[in-house]
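Annotated sample (chain length 326).
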Amino acid sequence: MLHFLVTADHSYTLKQYFSQWGAHLRPQVRILKYEAKPWTRDALPGTWIFTDLERLRDDELQTVSDFAQRLAADPSRWRVLNDPRRVLLRYALLRDLAAAGVNDFRAFKLSELPDGARYPLFLRRENDHAGAATDLLHDPEQLQAALRNLPNVEALLAVEYLPYQRSDGLFLKYSMMRIGTEMAPRHIHFSRHWLLKNQELVDEPLMQEEDLYVRESPHRQMLWEVFQRAGIDYGRIDYTMANDRIQVFEINTNPILLHGIQHLAPRRWESQVFSAQQMNDAFSKLDAGIAVADPAQLEADRRAFRRRIRIHNVLRKLAVRPGARR
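Output written by the structure step:
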C-alpha cells in the first residue's frame, strides 16, 4: 500500500494522476491529508511518502518528523520516503548545492543578502512552486522597488540569475522524477524567455530532442547524486544545463506528475506515455518486501479518515483550525 501525505490544498497532483495515467494502481494508493492527522491512528503497513514538507509550519514539521521516526523503527512493516528528519528544503538545498560547486548561482534570505550578491537576481517564495515572483532585478534600487510591491517579504528568497540561454536562443528546463530507487525522465520544456514554467514550443526538432531525453535519460547519475544530497526519495527535480554542467532550480516533493492527455499536444503523447509507464513501474516496486495491510483494517481506516476530512472541511468553512478554541 502506498500512503501519500499531502497538504489539503495540493492533493490534486496525485488524484489527477491516479485517476488517469496510474488508474490501475489506484486501489493500492491512499492520499492522506496532514490536516486529518493520520499519525493519531494505527499506521497501516506499506510505503509512507511525505510530500509538501516545505508547506508545513515548524511545529507541523516536528510532528511529522516524530511520525516518520516511529515508522522507520520497523522496516518490515513500513518504508519511509522523504524522511522529514533528513530532507533539505528549498533554501537549504540551494545553499548546499552552491557551496558544493554543483550550482553556479546562490540563493539568500533577504536578511542575509550580502553586498557582494551578483546581479541581476530575482525574488521567489521559499515555500511554493509558483516560480519567480519578479522579473530580473539589475541593482539594489530595483530590488528595493520590487520589495515595496510584494507582500510577506520575510518569505522571499533572492536568487542570483544564471544565464542559461542556448546558442539557438532557447531556454530549456529539464525534469526528472525519483520514485524510491527508480528514476523516470519527465520532459524538456522549451521557451524563448528565461522564466519558464510550462511547455511553450512544440516544433518537431524540439520534440525529437524531448523524445531522446525521455528515452535515454542522459543525466541520470548526476541527478541521483543531487537527490541523495537532498535526502529526497520521491519528487521531481527541475534543472537546466549551463557551463557544461547541470544547474538545479528545485526539487518539488509534490509535483504534477503528468497533465491529462487532453492537455498535451498530440506530438508529445508517445514520450509522455513512455514516461508514465516508467513511473507506474517505479510505483509498483515501492512495496516490495513490506507487510500487506489487512483489507478489513484498511476499510475501517478509510471510513475513519473520511469522517475526519468531513469534520476538517466543516471547520475550514467556519474558519476554525482543528483543535483551536473559539
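Annotation: The first helix runs from residue 12 to 19.
Annotation: The chain has three domains: 2-87+289-317, 106-160, 171-285.
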